[in-house]
Amino acid sequence: MTATQTTQAPGASLAWLRSRSRWSVFEIAFWLATLLTFYFFPSYLMLASQIAITALFAISVDLVLGYAGIITLGHAMFFGLGAYAAGLLSAKAGWGEPLTGLLFASALAGLVGFVASFLIVRVQHLALIMVTLGLGLLTYELANALSWLTGGTDGLRGIDTWPILGLFDFDLWGYTAYSYTLATLFLGFLISRRIVNSSFGLALRGVRENVRRMPAIGSAYRGHLRKIYTISAAIAGLSGALLAQTTNTVALEVLSFQRSADVVVMLILGGTGRLYGAILGAIIFLLVRDQLSGINPQYWYFGIGLLLMVVVLFMPRGILGGLARLAGRDQ
Predict the structure, then answer these.
(1) C-beta atoms surrounding 126 within 10 Å
(2) Structural domain contains residue 299
(3) Which residues are listed as membrane-spanning (predicted)?
């Protein structure tokens, strides 16, 4: 590589990152459209808040799966830790202030994620799937065994979430819950967007594409993976805390393998390595589930499976990936 090429390469990368950081008209329109739910679908506000919570969780998984290439089937561990942290803070410690509850839950999940990351970065491929799955199952069984603390299969009860900022109480119609979850989703999205459109995000893409070549260019790839895994765990804990605070209950299901598997399905539907793909996947999955379960509560997963097969066969990079390819803007 010549001296001219060496000086031009960083400039080209910076220009690419700056172009990715600019907000498009479609992005602005999308976030403005989320506010229309208040006026056009007021009876679906509780479902909309669940979509916002799940979308935030999907974003957390996309950071490690779509951008860093860490295949995980146990990320519900962090979602559940966040839910139980916020729930126990209220039910056992008597502190139901929502914002500090969010911070506490996110910090705890992030701390556990940091500790787990030292194990995660040491394995790859099939071993990585087994390790993440094993950690998730162990956490689930631990929570079940500590029924005196978590409530076990009966769930954690006695959660009382105070009004947000002492002003906005959670109403039965879901106006406050949706506003709260949507605002948190937007904040989590902004943080994630800043991460993936930075030099750190560019390094993560390099790790995803070819982890063996990263040390050759002087990249401490294991340090990068530990950082993103910790950040992802913290965001997942944030989404779990939202669920506990908006429903005032925590079921053992928040730690289940099913929740981890479902979010991977959402990413496949929307498209991995695309933050909006995580949001779109959560919207499609939960809306289809809501409609199909109303028709047949037992076999609604058949419809999800059929949809998944269609997307994988005709849009292997997800719905957003397929649309980007048609538009000639595939990344």
Answers:
(1) 9
(2) no
(3) 23-41, 47-70, 101-121, 128-149, 172-191, 228-244, 264-287, 299-320
